[in-house]
Amino acid sequence: MPLLTTQQAAERIGVSVRHVQRLVAGGGLDAIGTDRIDADSVAQWLAQRQGRRLRAWEAPTAWAAVALLEDEPAPWLGQAQRSRLRSALAGTTAAELTGRTRNRAEVQRFHAHPRALGHLTRDVVESGANRGIGGLAAASDRLDGYIAASGVRRVVQRYELDPDPAGNLTLRTTDMPLDVVAELVDGRRHVLAGLDLAGSTDTRERSAGHRLLDRALAALKS
Q: Which among 61, 2, 66 has a CA at the least distance from the CA of 30?
């Protein structure tokens, strides 16, 4: 497991040591001991923000952005809010969209026993990021899915999941009703899979995600 000092993590992110400490306290970065930060968690933090310190939208707005890009109504926002958001999306790039929508879910990574992955599909809404979308090969040895915030602890305990920034299980915790998430996952433009891939530390996955998002943004503007 590659490690960074708190100072090195701060320099890599471009923030103060105190800010890194706040990120650790809030669960955004993984600390090992008193002055070591897991380098993978730093890379993932940066990937979610595309190297920029963009202000993220609140979760309802982030989910509405996904819905509008899928040509869905997003009824949880008012008409005026939806109109402003649509205008904002028209001037947004794929990289900016990835950063702006990061509050749609809190990302946690774990190591799960390979046999547990199949059972876990009953507890999550698979994001589509591992299904071979965007020209990538399907990944049967990993699971990436959305889960209700109220159900995370039960799943972690039931399957004895171990926190691991490089693990084979990605849980995206959200307060958005999972039936809404499932509808958006099945959207024909694969916006949610694109966002999840675009936040990856893997270059090929990130590029595939950007391509999906570029197409969705172009369709919105047409």
A: 2
* 162-198 tens-digit pLDDT: 988 888 999 999 999 999 999 999 999 999 999 999 9
Written as one letter, the residue type at 9 is: A
Pairing type for strands 143-148 and 106-111 reads unpaired
Distance of CA 93 to the CA centre of its chain: 17
pLDDT tens profile 195-207: 999 988 888 888 9
**What domains are defined for the chain?**
3-49 (1.10.1660.10), 100-221 (no CATH)
pLDDT digits (tens, 9 = 90+) for 81-138: 999 999 999 989 998 899 899 999 998 889 999 989 989 999 999 988 777 777 776 7
Whole-structure pTM value: 0.80
* DSSP-assigned letters across all residues of the chain: --EEEHHHHHHHHTS-HHHHHHHHHTTSS-B-SSSEEEHHHHHHHHHHHTTS-PPPPPHHHHHHHHHHHTT---TTS-HHHHHHHHHHHHT--HHHHHHHTGGG-EEEEEE--HHHHHHHTTTSEE-STTTTGGGPPP-TT-EEEEEEGGGHHHHHHHTT-EE-TT-SEEEEEESS-HHHHHHHHT-TT-HHHHHHHHT-SSHHHHHHHHHHHHHHHHHHH-
Bridge-based pairing state of the strands 143-148 and 169-174: parallel
